Amino acid sequence: MPVVKVIEILAESTESWEAATQAAVTEAAKTVRNIQTVYVDSQQAIVEGDKVVRYRVGAKVSFIVKE
Q1: 20 to 30 A Cα–Cα from 16, which one of 10, 25, 26, 35?
Q2: SS3 at position 27
Q3: pLDDT, tens digit (0-9, with 9 covering 90-100), for 1-44
Q4: Alpha helix locations (H) across 1-67?
Q5: Domain total of the chain
Q6: What gap in Å lies between CA 54 and CA 9, rounded to an integer?
Q7: What letter does residue 18 receive in the DSSP assignment?
Q8: Which are the contacts of 66, defined by CB distance < 8 A and separation ≥ 6?
Q9: Which CATH number does the domain housing residue 19 bear?
Q10: 21 near 59, Cβ under 8 Å?
Q11: How far apart are CA 50 and CA 62, in angstroms?
Q12: What is the extent of the structural domain holding 18?
């Protein structure tokens, strides 16, 4: 049975929550291999002048630890 590790990441995008989620995975993938899932457990929108200008997510990224 493989060992799975979970890390928490905060990421941001000016486009969407989906883009912020992808940014979290992209950044994690720079140093982590074997990413299996990403679980978004929080979302936040930053508002300026009555407009949403940034989307933030708190995400848990899981990956298999190689033996």
Answers
A1: 35
A2: helix
A3: 789 999 999 999 999 999 999 999 999 999 999 999 999 999 99
A4: 17-28
A5: 1
A6: 16
A7: H
A8: 33, 34
A9: 3.30.1660.10
A10: yes
A11: 36
A12: 3-65
